[in-house]
Structures are given as C-alpha cells and as structure tokens.
Design a protein that fits this description.
Blueprint: H1 9-21, H2 33-43, E1 47-50, H3 52-58, E2 71-74, H4 81-91, E3 96-102, E4 106-111, E5 122-124, E6 131-135, E7 138-142, E8 168-176, E9 182-187, E10 192-194, E11 197-199, H5 201-209, E12 216-224, E13 228-236, H6 243-247, E14 259-263, H7 278-285, E15 290-291
Parallel strand pairs: 1-2, 2-3, 13-14
Antiparallel strand pairs: 3-4, 5-9, 6-7, 7-8, 8-9, 10-11, 12-13, 14-15
Length: about 290
C-alpha cells in the first residue's frame, strides 16, 4: 500500500520492488488516518511506507489491530524516539522498521523490530553492500544505489556529494559506534524536510524576492511536532502579502512558508557576501514568527 506522494523517492522504490516480486500494489489517492486504516483492511495490505508526519496523525486514533501488516517502514524525516515508541505500541513492535537514507544515496541504514528498545535514538546499521564512514563528523556512504548525478546539473548542485575515500556525503552529521550503529546529530546543509519532502531554501528565497514590494528574504526550517519542520521565512517588506495567492504558480504547496516574520531590509540577516545567514535568522526571529494556516 502506497500512501505517500510519488514524487518522494521511497514510494517509487517500493513500487518497483513490488513489481519485481510479483506483489499487488495499491496506490492511495490521498492520506488520512481513517482512510489508511480502511485501505489496509480492505486490501489486506502487508507492507506500507510512512513518513513521521503520517505517524503523528495515526497516533490520534485508537490502535486498530491491523493484523495483515507484516512490515511498516518509516523514513523520510527524523523519527523521534518518543514517537517511535508510541507508534510501536500502537502498531505492534514486531512490525516496525526505520530506514535512513536519501534520494541521492539510497538506503544507508535499517533498524528492525527487535532492535528499537536496545538502540534508542539510532537509525540502525548499514545493510549488506553498503559502507558507511564518519569523516569530520559527517556521514558518508558507498553503495551501488548512489546516484551518478543530477540531470542537467550546472556543476554546483553536486558540491555536497563530492566523494571522499570513495564515499559520498549524505548531508547529515552523525556518529557510528564500534558495532556499526548510526546516530544522527544534525543536518549539515540547509535542506528543510517537511512532511518527508525536501524543500531547498534558496528556491523559496528566489520566489519571495521576485514578489512586488519584497526587497529580500531568508528561508529556514523550524521544528514542528506534526511536520518535523515547517518552512519559515523572514521577509524584507513593509506590505502585507498573501503568500498562497502570490506564490501559487511558482511553488508547490508544501514549499510555501508556514511561518513568517517581516523586517526592514537593513535588518535582514544577509552576510557581506550577500549570502543568507539562516542560522542567525532562526535565532533572531524565532519569537517573532507568525504561523500561517494552510
């Protein structure tokens, strides 16, 4: 059962795997907790992939006792230990798996049902055929699933994937213990993961800066219990802006800022080189952000 957008790399991977295995695949038109439970029951689904935002919503329901499920895989964004423990109890811990990886590198690590309690906070160990190294605190991986490059890349996008010792960066900071258990520490780069989907701040900043009356913008992620992160923006403007209407034709809905603050251009956190100072913006404007409902 596929309940995530097909633009996400994981559903496509599971769809291909199911076809190779000769398994029937059901693609849900949209996700709601109630519809998910109904679909699993109707189709007797055995394997499903979820992102933590969907898990958050499912936990609002009483445990449904979905006995057909053999494996529930959660990935796409950080999966907090408390949420993982609650979902294991809701679902049945003998069916819960967490995968860690990226679209560019494929699966980096896996943690299975009988390993969560003994390795709280870990995203698992590398599966066969995958090599993981920590270099200067950064997670690097070598795998047959690592991409060869981005289509029509101009030479700048690939910078974070520069190889070291035959491995490429996943874009995260982390640790690995002597037994191979990987723990994430932080994101190295500025990519925002909201509801399991990647948002690149520079793309949103360009769209905002092109709006009439906007002199510039700095975009960054802020923590959120349901979405993992929200897209937040500090915008240099003295005019009210209806972001949903203004950016409807430029950005997908999940990329629109969900929290904003406005300021004068002189107060916008921009370095002398013109680079957005996203960490400074997050720290300076955290208490001034106003939430925007979808």
């Amino acid at each position: 059962l596929i309940v995530c957008p097909l633009a996400h790399s994981a559903p496509g991977s599971f769809l291909r795997a199911a076809r190779i295995a000769g398994a029937r695949t059901v693609i849900a038109p949209r996700f709601t907790p109630e519809q998910f439970v109904a679909d699993v029951r109707q189709h007797r689904a055995s394997v499903v992939f979820l992102v933590p935002t969907q898990v958050h919503r499912l936990l609002a329901l009483p445990p449904p006792g979905l006995d057909s499920l053999r494996a529930v895989i959660v990935a796409g964004a950080p999966f907090p230990p408390a949420q993982k423990a609650a979902f294991a109890a809701w679902l049945g811990a003998d069916r819960l798996y967490e995968f860690y990886g990226s679209s560019e590198t494929g699966t980096v690590s896996v943690i299975g049902p009988d390993e969560h309690a003994s390795h709280v906070g870990s995203v698992g160990r590398a599966p066969p055929g995958v090599s993981v190294q920590i270099i200067d605190g950064e997670i690097f991986v070598r795998s047959p699933a690592v991409m060869s490059g981005y289509l029509a890349d101009d030479g700048t996008t690939l910078a974070p994937l520069d190889a070291r010792e035959g491995h490429v960066s996943v874009g995260d900071l982390g640790t690995i213990d002597p037994e191979g258990w990987i723990t994430l520490v932080d994101r190295k780069h500025d990519t925002i993961i909201t509801g399991g989907l990647n948002v690149y701040p520079a793309e949103v900043e360009r769209a905002l800066a092109a709006l009439p009356g906007v002199a510039g913008a700095v975009v960054f992620g802020v923590p959120d219990d349901e979405w993992g992160q929200l897209v937040a923006a500090v915008i240099a403007t003295d005019q009210p802006i209806d972001l949903r209407s203004a950016l409807r034709d430029q950005l997908a809905g999940y990329k629109l800022p969900r929290a904003i603050a406005t300021c004068a251009l002189a107060d916008l956190p921009i370095g002398s080189s013109g680079k957005a100072l996203r960490r400074a913006a997050r720290e300076a404007f955290a208490t001034r952000l106003a939430r925007i409902d979808r």
